[in-house]
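User: Run a structure prediction on this.
Assistant: Running it now.
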Amino acid sequence: MVGGSCLCGGIRFEYSRAVTDVGMCHCSLCRKVSGAASNAVIVVPESDFKWLCGEELRQTFVKPTGWSTTFCRTCGNPVPQKLHGAAAYWVPAGALDDDPGLRIGGHIFVGSKASWDEIGGQAPQFEERPIPGASPRR
């Protein structure tokens, strides 16, 4: 099991299996929610995810466009949220307490990354959201 928590420890969760490597989103919304150059997330099936405590401390902010983020209402730390239209959760990699044994699988929305953001490594990069069969940016 891989465990995670928010900064204040009020929310704790664990999961047994991720179905993606770490995905890095460089869009302006993810930069704002993470306070960094990108937002790192993994996808975990709902059946492999468990809230240990603090589920009632979750707060969700939804923009008129439908984009949303979920965070701890006590400390503001991003926390897992249901993936729209799927039986899965987006899990913020920065909230993990244990090593998930994953690496960066790819970068999305690099076409709108911050001017000061320099992406390293060999993971594929996509201008926007990858479309099945799309070629990564090199």
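The beta strands are 2-5, 12-15, 22-25, 39-45, 49-53, 58-62, 68-72, 81-82, 88-92, 104-108.
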